[in-house]
Design goal:
Pfam families: Suc_Fer-like (PF06999). This protein is α+β, with helices and mostly antiparallel strands. 22% of the residues lie in helices and 31% in strands. It is built from 6 helices and 13 strands. The chain has a 9-stranded mixed beta sheet with strand order 4-3-1-2-6-5-7-8-9. Strands 10-11-12-13 form a 4-stranded antiparallel beta sheet, covered by helices on one side. Strand 11 and strand 12 form a beta hairpin. It starts with 20 loop residues before the first strand and ends with a helix.
Length: 298
């Protein structure tokens, strides 16, 4: 059988899940295709959860990798509220999913706690289970407290698909070796470029622009941390191109020119017919401003 993630005809950059606040709730029992379709938590509670989360936060169900994560008894459930823009995680222990309704999702607080979420959501797409579960299990052997299985992360055609908290970055097509490096760097807040799909805090154009600048800096042997780069709004340029300004916390700024391209033969989900998709690519990166003197001394 050919899986959708075996058809690798489009770049990863610019495909990240867009969200700034997340609720990660431990739920070891079965996940329905859409965790808020009423079949996971029941229709009554689901409607209340939708009202609580709408326009505020995204919900990811999580569990420990392997059989132990599925067999865990009921009683107390880990829950993390993530504010990706601030790079913060608040850790809770809840009695059940109804306690999500009482969480404060408006005031960022907590610590910078790295969490690696590997999509294993089989009912959403077979790729997530077949490719995600082995990766999660392998990484959990070395990073037990950091790695979790999770529900749909957007982009199962890039399986294994990973979300990195607390910064809200998406990754795809990770093997175990790259996964180990990603987690190892994340524990120190260090930026990992390979397999990086982008930051969920910005648009596809912004994701591509940031990654283009990050690659230049890393190729120049700079140390880069999550949160060092921020992305401005996309502007228009001549023809079919657009420009995005990317800024470093040290005062440097770059103008990234993007162009829109087509990829044919994209298979969005297992069993779907191939289609043509459009994506952005960086055409040129031009520095606008050097580092400030204070930052350079720093």
């Amino acid at each position: 059988m050919t899986f959708c993630s075996d058809v690798q005809v489009e770049p990863l950059a610019g495909t990240a899940k867009q969200e700034s606040v997340y609720v990660l709730f431990e739920w070891p029992t079965a996940w329905s295709r859409d965790v808020l379709d009423g079949r996971t938590f029941g229709p009554g509670l689901t409607e209340k959860l939708k009202a609580k989360l709408k326009g505020v936060a995204g919900l990811q169900l999580i569990r420990r990798p392997g059989r132990a994560g599925h067999e865990r008894g009921t009683g107390h459930f880990r829950c993390f509220v993530v504010w990706a823009r601030e790079g913060l995680v608040q850790d809770y222990v809840l009695n059940g999913p109804e306690d999500i309704l009482d969480l404060d999702l408006e005031h960022p607080t907590g610590t910078c706690l790295p969490l690696v979420l590997v999509c294993t959501h089989a009912k959403r797409d077979a790729c997530c289970a077949i490719k995600g579960r082995p990766l999660a299990a392998s990484l959990a052997c070395e990073f037990e407290e950091t790695v979790w299985e999770t529900s749909h992360t957007k982009g199962h055609r890039f399986a294994p698909s990973v979300l990195l908290m607390p910064w809200g970055y998406s990754f795809g097509r990770l093997n175990v070796e790259a996964g180990r490096e990603l987690v190892g760097k994340a524990l120190h807040g260090e930026y990992f470029y390979p397999a990086n799909r982008g930051s969920g805090l910005t648009t596809p154009q912004g994701q591509v622009a940031e990654l283009a600048v990050a690659r230049q800096l890393l190729d120049a042997s700079e140390t880069l941390h999550y949160g060092d780069l921020t992305v401005g709004a996309a502007g228009t340029a001549a023809g079919d191109s657009s420009t995005v300004v990317v800024r470093h916390r040290d005062g440097r700024a770059w103008d990234v020119e993007l162009e829109e391209k087509e990829a044919s033969g994209v298979v969005s989900s297992c069993g779907d017919e191939p289609k043509t998709s459009r994506f952005y690519a960086a055409r040129r990166v031009r520095i606008l401003r050097a580092a400030s003197q204070d930052a350079a001394r720093g």
